[in-house]
Prior knowledge:
CATH class of the largest domain in chain A: Alpha Beta
CATH architecture of the largest domain in chain B: Orthogonal Bundle
Distance between the termini of chain B: 38 Å
Distance between the termini of chain A: 42 Å
Largest interface: A-B, 38 and 27 residues
Number of helices of chain B: 10
Strand order of the largest sheet of chain A: 6-7-8-3-9-10
Shape of chain A: globular
Structural class of chain B: mainly alpha
CATH topology of the largest domain in chain A: Rossmann fold
Strand content of chain A: 15-25%
Number of strands of chain B: 0
Number of strands of chain A: 10
Helix content of chain B: over 70%
Oligomer: heterodimer
Order of helices and strands of chain B: HHHHHHHHHH
CATH architecture of the largest domain in chain A: 3-Layer(aba) Sandwich
Shape of chain B: flat
Strand content of chain B: under 5%
Radius of gyration of chain B: 25 Å
Helix content of chain A: 25-40%
Number of helices of chain A: 8
CATH topology of the largest domain in chain B: MetI-like fold
Amino acid sequence: MSAGPKISARNVAKTYGDMTVLERLNLDVEEGAFCTIVGASGCGKSTFLRMLLSQETPSRGRIELDGAPLPGEPTSDRGIVFQKYSVFPHLTVEDNLILAREFERSRLFGRSFGSSRKAARAEIDDTLEKIGLGSARLKYPAQLSGGMQQRLAIAQALLKRPKVLLLDEPFGALDPGIRADMHDLLLGLWEELQMTVFMVTHDIREAFKLGTRILVFDKIRHDPQAPDAYGATITYDLPLTRKDAGPPPELAGLAMNADTSTGASA
Amino acid sequence: MFPPDGRTEVFFVRIINRKPSRVTSITLTALPFVATIGAYALASHYRRLDNPADKLLPSLQQMGETFWRMAFVPDKRSGDLLLWLDTYDSLCRLGMGMGAATILALSLGILIGFIPHARSTLAPYIATFSLIPPITILPILFIIFGLGETSKIMLIVVGTAPVMIRSVSQEVMNIPRELIIKAETLGASVLQMIFRVVLPQTLPKLVNAMRLGLVPAWIFLISAEAIASTSGLGYRIFLVRRYLAMDVILPYVVWITLLAFIIDRLLLLLSKRAFPWHHLGGESL
Lengths: 266, 285
């Protein structure tokens, strides 16, 4: 099982009515890869990520995880961090982090009490220190900064030790300085936990900095009479080494596009 | 920036950006109330100049005396303190009706909002049911449940529950999908998601739905009491109407309004105490 790819997509397409978003998508990703996914707005990057999460199903083709078809719904083998709404606003920081444990221990209602809860809260001390939220453990997410919320979201997504971590523009709303800290945290966790990571981003520099492999989504077929007839697919699939300072010349134009589309969608 | 003589510069600010000071705010709040009472006192005064025995606009003093008598002097016939008896009976009916409506709203609202099959089964049915004018069901309730407490409570339930159910189901559907998916990736079962994600996110909205539901609840309570009852605030008002006893009716209306206001504020306070995370941002009415 470990010899084969972790995730493989075979001829995957996604259509909504007459509109084709993705088509002819083929991909094999080995275990432990850090795939960054870039492309213009509306070219199906997030759709692909949602299919990896089983939030949506491919219209054609199939996606396999460890050689078996993906489950039909989100499960604990794949963790997810969204750009927003990623943590539970009604739970304090520490309760957000013990929730997965409570689900495991209290099968019926998912709520632990008394000493069991106290023990669960003690278990997360290290995690809280690692993400720098030790002093904020009793705060609600709305009382945290955007960067702190996303650190909490990442820590929460990793509670079940998922083999695959999916990130949908997780740092899109953060300041550049805070982003750099988040990159360090994320890379540290990735190396420590040996996960396979898929990360959608608008920031091409971020994609090159973090990824071991970059996937560029774009439309290659255009029908001027029916702009929605053809979908996007993976147009570039480049392995990266960490020393790459930035995008190679042939992708410089794309970098510009990606930047402008970030501005447009912001 | 500042003028040399130390005066701070006065900027003209559009009215949407001007906030009243605390004193101004309290004054403005009191203004319409004081104006209403003043206008009433004036009208009552001139009416009683023409006819000292006028019943339509009794003086404030007369109403105060009557209210005191209703509250603290035992009734000659029954020996009860009528105001407290009426208040107690009405609040019991209101509480039981609202309690039942709230339980229905929470359970059905979560089912409809969270489980697509339940939504297909129940949402159109409840939408249809909510279009029936509740008061038209009152005769049916009287026939089925008799003239006792049950039919009055049922009227309140019928009048408030459908709207509250719809409001709660909508709120459940408005929970960001991301949170549900997150719970799924943390290994939650459906029941666990309901108890740890959906229910806590819905409860503050449920309190809101209760506050809005109280308005029709009072209407149907007073209606039911007016039509068939031997006690209650609505019963008393419609009873003394026969004697043109405005000195009872008007204080009772003010009393009912005060009760409604207090219940509303208590619910808001409950929401702020029990769900602090829900009130972390923004003003609320």
